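A note from the maintainers: we've had questions about how concatenated examples are separated. There is no special marker in the raw files; a new sequence line simply starts the next protein. For clarity in this README we add a label.
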Amino acid sequence: MASTSSRRCFGSTPVNNNSGSMVEPQQTGFSFTAQDNELLSSFDEEDELSVTPMLSMTHSGGGGGHFGFGVTPIPIISSASPTLVAPSSSSRTSDGIDDGMTMMEAMERNQQQLAQQQQQQQAYSSASLHEPLGVQDAGLMNAVDMLCDDMFLCKTDVLRQFARSRGIAGGSKVDVVIKLVQQAHKHAHGDSTDLSHTKRFLGGVFADEVRTSGLRSQWTNASLEASHVEMACERHAKFASMSNSSKKLMVRKASAESSRLLRRLTRPFQDEYQQLSNAAVGGVHRQFKEELDQLVDKWSITELVSPFCSYLVSSIRHTTSTNLMTRTEATVQLVQADIIRPTVEDGDASTLEQYMRLLEKVVDEVNRREIIYGDQRMNWGTDTGPVIMSSIASFEAAAAANKQFEFDEVPEWVQGYVKSFASWEAIVRNDIPLFADLPPRVFHALLLGVTCWKILTLIHGDAAKPSDIPRGYGAALKQSLIEFYLDDAKASDALNRLMAYVQAPSDRVRGGVTVRPEIFPCILQQLQSAFHEANDEHMPMRVALVFREISLTTSRCERAYGLLPLMVRLTEDLKFHLRFAEVFRHLNTKDRNTVRNSNVHMIKTLMYFEKELGISAPVSTKSTAFLVVILLYLSSRSNGTTTPAILERYASVTGRDEFGVVSLTEISATNIHELKVALPPQLSYSSWLQQGDTKEKTVYSVIPSTAVKGASNQAMLISQAPMMKALDAISRVPWRINKYMLHVQEAMIREGFGFGKIRPGFYPLHYCNMRDGTINHDSLDEPIYNTQQHFEYHKQQDTDWRNLQDTRSSRVHYLQALRQARSLVQFSHLYFPNSMDFRGRMYPIPGRLNHTGSDPFRALLEYAEPKPLGKVGLYWLKVHVANKMGMSKLSFDERVQYVDEHTEDVIRSAESPLHGEKWWQEAAEPMQCLMACKELADALKHSQGAENFPSRIGVAVDGSYNGLQHYSAIGRDAFGAELVNLVPSERPADAYTGILKEMLKSIQADSSRDHQVAQRCLGTGKGLDRNHIKRKTIKRPIMTQVYGVTGYGMSEQILDELVKQNAAHGLWTPTDMKEMAAYLREKVLDSLGVTFRETQLCRKWLSEVTELIWEAQPAETRNAFTWTTPLGLVVRQPYRVRKEHHLFTVHGYSRIPGDSVSPASRKQLSALAPNLIHSLDATHLAMTALEMQNRGLSMMAVHDSYWTYACDLPELSSVLRQQFVNLYDKYDPLWELKEQWEESFFMDLRRHGVKLPDPPKRGDLDLRVVLNSPYFFS
């Protein structure tokens, strides 16, 4: 184990206070941040690099220091051993712990208190009890004693606030700490013994023997995947639960599925509306059709159909509880229970008639619910107590009016269930005097709650929990008692007696008793022993209530919904949307932005503007309900034998239309792609090229491969296309974690100050040291402000919090990767399967830790298989060290000489990386530089000589201005080729410097003609007013111009650099800098035209040709630009017009898909040039990877950066050059594009008489000189 003597305990890192002095953090108040709580843990006590994990804390900004968040380590139990060395003790002065009391004494005291509380709760149902974590787990309690100095420095309310953000609740402080430790241990190790979330969402995708806990040395690929999938499922459940609490979030979540429905419904509604509406109304509902005709005339088809699709999908995907989010099909269970039956298509007319029979019921139900809801935004559309009581009252009114409740068939178990309830009711009335004279309405409320629980257990079995029962049933029961007694005290007394009678727990609150949902399972348990002999005069009505409740409870499960509740909900939501959309049309821009961006009370806002704008006849319930009927009918109708209906209908066995159930045929159970799994590396590699069936292609055992996308690429996979083989060659390179670099980075993290790409654990909030400009005086009724101070204060505040958010996000991502590296450090081989995007560029699927990350991430990985350096390896290893130090502009020999002169610095850096001069920290990429220093130092000290040293480091070579290299090769640009190192030279050329020289010639000529902006750019030559135009001023616009940046974008990039320069001297006004940016942009373009003449002609030809094709196509059906690369990859640009509509819900504003057909967008034109170069760059990479594989050598690459062993670098360099020449020697991309596009867009071009121009004439560059260019890739 690593020594703990140098470990900084929580609160020991000094921080700055307001005055700039250093203070100890324990003198200030800390608050926790959930986002930064990433734990790094050791898992093997035999690992010499095992270190203490960390819990990140967030400074509250008060009490002296003002910081965003700080990071300090805390001990945590290891999976191998719970024993750790405790940090030094300090006095415990926080609330809850007496001075002088040890942590264990405090824990013993809390154990006694918890035991007393447990004894007091014994009278209630044992199902509702849970023993506090930590009472039984002695090992965890011993570990908690080591946390006292850290955790107990925080106040109890701060600790509890943090715990709530992690989904943890507890009574005592000790209880909360122990729960945090347990959760931290779980998150650090990914331990999960049952994979409960995975089974609930994905089913049995993992075998029972898969180990997801214990020693990681015994893990397999499936174990690693299972642990990550389980955590993703857990996160998905929390996110889905949050989304289901808001209609606005629900429709956003369902946007993809609603888009598919929109495409299927738009055309049928447009073509058949008049016919269907006439057939539906007959001679009875003419008024309904007249009002709907007005809506159809006022709104476009998609503005009516798109909201319906969004609400339909989100409603059926909605669940009222996390426990109900399962793969269980509610309809299957209900069919088995003989409650519903799949419908047999009996003609379109009968389906439409069925929906029309429910129309008036829907209108009455919606109007009744609107009166009850009022302006209660959060309750709108939910089954609250008043709504449930109103439904019961409507059934009782129907019974009182001698309305017959007729049923075709009633299952025997339903009859027996209702009779049992009647018997239980008679017993209760006899045993509890207060219940003797209660009206039937009270027991009807009880019946609904008990039925809800019975159906939940029928569908979900043991997975259902009493908490899944909506609170509205308890509220309805209490309301019914209050209405009868007209006295809250008597109603509470009656509730207490009932809950004691059924042995259900109760909660006393101010003002009475809260009805807990456990009462309904307790009643159901008593019903099972009740006789069925009682005569019940309410039998028919109660059977109807039971079937109504079955329909409602089904609606609370995923992927199914009761027919009548669905029609009511869709009518409510659609009516609100249409009313608000009408108001939104008349609002000014300011009010519209307020609705879009602010959390306004939507119902009150709607009522206010309807009154303010004088909208006296808002959208009626009748017209909206009729619209829902028409769209539901279209959704229930299949389009032939190949395409099933959108909705699958189930009829109730009772024969009553309102008790039917529907489900979406296009919605399946939760898919693995919805979970956004942070995929881990593989422990062993299995190529998908060796598998036969394309449907079973997997990179991971569960997750379908993203390596192939689209039908054409699937065909490439089957045919073993070269791009697929190259992808496989890149993916099969084995890696491992570099323990030395892991140890160094963990040590740096413990300090918390950060370095380079490793963000610090805190960020100073500078605005806290500024005055906000407030002026208070006794003579002033309200404070006034110093305008300038007030502005500067809030400007700095915004800047600080943006930087804090960026720092926090980057640090969290890094800590997650570091935690993953720690968990994988003992595995000898790791693999990073790659995927391809539409251009053929390759990216690793594991997202946190991989070789494409920034400097700290790359420094954690080394090759799993070593190779001796050999005769040339040491030379190239030294070149690699120099490259990481930022010496890539020197020649190779000069780089080696530079490293030889700093050999002592290299060795000292490797031996004491965090002490002494720390020479490696001066590098451009410091962490990779330190890794290379360690490798070089070990090679120089190797007992058998450096040539025999087994090297694992990947030595990298990068392309020189790779985009310009490809353009120069396409246009055979001889002059530009010299600037991008396609031509042999003694030292690496610098394209930016060459372009800058051309610019300065032109600027000096303008200055001599008294051009004021040119003179401002050159400066007066006095003091700081000189040399304003530098290499970095023009670097970004030149680099991005090749990839299609606009003129405005170039000006903004130059302006950003000028603003940074102006901060140092303050010579320019904002207007001056804007003029300079526009002027320099033109000079950059002019200079590019001189230095890269053929390159610019190629780009100009691409722009002209694509514009001609674009204008020749009809705007509504424009197709995407496509082309085929030399290796057969079909590139199809995915950019399409994304037309959206407004959607107004009671919970806020959202945007939804607004068109069933999406033509190509104009981004097709601006993105074509960079995508073409990226596809050719990917082709070059694939050709190189295949050739290296044929030679028996391995390599890794990220776009234009290639790695291999130091001894193999000359071979890689030769292959890179040869394949680049092969790519362009016989292949002319521009002529290929012209031929392909003339064929693809033949009809459009012929219709407009357009002929595509020929590509520009090439320059005189002999491309074979690249073979001898040493700095082509260097």
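[label: protein 2]
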Amino acid sequence: MAMMEEGARSCLLQSRSSLEQDIRASYLMDHMISDGVLTGDEEDRIRSKPTRKEQAAALLELLLRKDNQAYISFYNALVRESYGDLASLLHNSLPLVSPEAEKSFSDGGTRYVQAVLSEGGVPQRPVVFVSRPALVNRVREKLYRLQKEPGWVTVFGMAGSGKSVLAAEAVRDHALITEEFLFLSVCIYFLSVFSLSLLILDDIWDSSVLKAFDIQCRVLLTTRDRSLADCVSGSKSEVAVESGLEEDQALEILALYVNGKPQRLPEQARSIVRECKGSPLVVSLIGALLREFPDRWAYYLHTLQQKKFKRIRKSSSYDYDALDQAMAASIQVLSEEHRELYIDLTVLEKDVKVPAKVLSVLWDLEPEEVEDVLQDFVNKSLLFRDCHHRPYLYYLHDLQLDFLAEMNRSGLEQRYSQGPPTSGDEECLYWFRFLTYHMAKANLTQELCSLMFSLDWVRTKAQIMGPAHLINDYVEYGTILDKEVRGHFQEFLSLNGHQLEQRPFPDVVQLALSQPDSSEVYRQALLQAQERATRGGLYLDWVNKSSLKSLSRLVVQPHQGSIYSACFSHDGTKIASCGSSKTLRVFKSTSGEKLLEIQAHDDEVLCCAFSPDDHLLATCSSDRKVKVWNVERGTLMRMFEDEHEEQVNHCQFTNTLRRLLLATCSNDKFMNTKLWNINKPSSQNTMFGHLEPVNHCCFSPDDAYLSTSSSDGTLKLWEVSSANEWKSIDVADMFPEQREQTEVMVKCSTWSADGRTIICAARNAVFVFDVETAAMLLEIRTSRLSTVQYCHACPSSNLVAIALSHYAVELWDIETSKKMADCSGHLSWVHGVQFSPDGSLLLSCSDDQTVRVWETKKVHTSSAVCLKRDSDVLFNNGDITVVAADNRNRLQDLIGIICLSPFSSLPPSLSLPLSLPPLSPSPLSPQVLEVPSGTSLATLQGHTRAVLHCQFTPEGHTLITSSEDTTIRVGPFSFFLILLSSLLWFVISLPVYLETHTSSPSLAPSPQVWDMSSGELLQDLVCHQGAVLACDVSPDGQLFATTSADKTAKVWSSASWECVRLLDGHQDCVRSCRFSWNGRRLATGDDNGEIRLWNVKDGTLLKICSRDNKDAMDSLHGGWVTDLHFSPDNTVLLSTGGYIKWWNVEKGEALQTFYPTGANLKRIHVSPDFSTFVTIDNIGILYILKKVE
């Protein structure tokens, strides 16, 4: 193997120390492997070294044993990975075969090379030139192969991709000219006298021209038609030219034209590059125009966006006067038939790749015919093919698509006058996704409204594509749709999108029945439900939903697992989220449509944060790593993995780009807060001061200070410029009564918009401090049963949002010290809240796997009554009476338990809510109230400990109470309401009482049965190895069943008190049971959401419900199965848990599911005819459901 030049080797040795200190070998080796100078085995040996520095040393040691090409590849890798200062150390010693070394000459190469190029007619470099070394080297490699035999090297690409410049640059090489070819000729300067001459044919379109040069010569050909060389003899090789430059390269060209630096170009420069996808032609044309008119950045960007290609005119040596002429020339070479088909591609959407079957539908041709046509387009660089998928996917460059749309504007409406093409083929999902786009483009407004305002379309597209695409359609085409009806459908999808992501797919009609009665969605759903009910379908109408106004604007389920962090982008259009799934997701804030998803870390991702320009996203994790991602490409830009030794809890960028820094904090003992310059491999500063984990860090609005919140009970403020501690606030002192007992953990902090106050959270409190004086200005105490997980100050008002462990978000006005709203809807701990940059929206994220977006103004002015789950219901000749305590009368934070006499004579006109006077009953003494006046008739004395439950006997004349004092008391009452209270959060449901006997469930494994008339203990049963959780008595009174935490259920004889059936098989606590009305079946439900149906006669298992329907919450029923009811004809079983389900008893299959807003339903009340159902969820919403007839 050839050795490295001595000058290059000496330069490497001299620079070795600097290189080992700074380079990250893993970044560089990918490029060197691509160049073929490094093998996979060599990479593995280097990666096996334990430290970064040792890896760098091993790479350099290997490099010194290789040749010139390895030196060049290493140099190019340094340039690509932004090690510019290190690359400069190697530049002067580059071997002459390197394209980078040739930059030392005015036009590339030695004087001899320049003379040969000039004689051969090779054009000079453009005035503004940026090298594309990877492509240049690829062309040179192909040319070197021609030394053995004549042949053709075809450089192909779309119009304006830079083929001619690339070909000229490839032959600007001393070794290539002196060693391989004795002469170069371009186009007409062809000489056949030299067998080793190189003929360059530039921009050839016609195969007949090519055949004239088929004389066993060596030819370099540039063309737009990849297949052009098929008509000639000899060996052939190809080099495909990408249609666009990298963004940095394109910006460099624009900067050279205007004599500036890329980083100082206006924002429109980046937009121009993105709009044309980095097309070298467009960038050069616009750059040349800007040289003459440097203030026209916005004008030329607008020109591109408006597709006014004629205004982007020639200002160089390019063959066409304007961009539109260059684009048109490519199409004119097609046959007339193919030209018409190509123009039809106007219907395609930008950045969307489609299979051939989509175009088969469009053109009404056989798939094989379509593939032949597409191959012709691909060969002529008029279409691009993604070969990484099967079947192949095809797409147009944005410039091609824009040009087609401009020239075919009038033909679109005619094309769709009979309606857009559709297909149900799985590979034709394109039409499901973009049908609305094409209809809008064709001005089919009426047809578009009919489609988008159809519940059938919503169901079909949501099931195939997911809800986010649908929501995005209503946002995108909102201006041409009826505003009111569009709002109905958009609200329905936004609030139920997380349900529509579930599999099995939910019944859309049932979901839609929960919409307001005035909604078009509800109207269509009710009509469909009524029609299906005539065919045996089961649907439930939520009849009292008009009293509830949802505050959420959007609900998204972006991850399978807890969500620990979510944040708005600085322009408010995107939301990023992360959590226990180890993934990072970015989605639209208007629709929830996924824009990006990355498997970000090896462990839980604890925080994510956008950079001020939204181009970058930082993440940190329990894996101790901090990563910075490119948002647009989803690529990893930087990883910091060596400095934090414990999990990294939080990360945040500075608020402005003046001096972009990233702050991180961790569970490290001492070096737990760091500042990073993302362009450097190590941290810039470390803050020393906290001796316990730091949970949160936050820059002040002007980026002058950084606040840190720590488990050591302090909030510290640091000067960013010096990393010195500025102030320290001992938050633990605010809890003097608790400090000695447990540590005080400061969870987080947030700055007011003016930077004068700072707000922090600890335990169940939020404190507001003056930044200058560190004096406390305000203290907000939330529920003592909850902890504050996060807080965030609104940038446009005095509001602060507080995330709480009891599933709620609260809004407080820190100016008036008043709570403005409770935002209910989450089903588990809320980990984070954040206002949008303009303060109009608020997001929250939770363990329930959802991100909710709220409209700040609507939340700000709303208030909702929250009921407690313990309630009783009376069904009386069609009238429904519900009694429950609410959150405005919490009875001194005690949980109320309510029971109605079954024969209370209530007036038919009684309406809810029934207003009762404020009550403060003792937990030991139940109160008896008259209905509907609410007059207290009696206070029942006798129990010595808290009363757990009360129950009227079926005839309504006797009341039974059970207590923690282990006694059951029986007393005569009739026609009254009884209200109790208890310090305990749980209430165990009592069974139906039969004549003079009762059995009582207990937290002990020994229920007792008493004679109610005498108070005599009839039986004390030791029946389970764990707590008895439920019991039920068979309709004939001969049997009763018990269920237990020992995962079993038992059936007992009421006559002998003996266990007659042991029912085992449940994998979790068996929490509920119910006999069928004919006594033949027993249903049991457990804490894993599984329901089992048993044959009472012999104890055999008949059916298992829910086995194959496990949902995202890792439960078969969204939670514990808490209540069960059979229909009077024993054909339907009703169950409650996280939601309500109706089952076909014979088949064990679900008939219908109702999803409440909250979860954890405790019990459900069922009317005698099984047509009305009443329950209350864990966030206090009352549901009165009636079967649709």
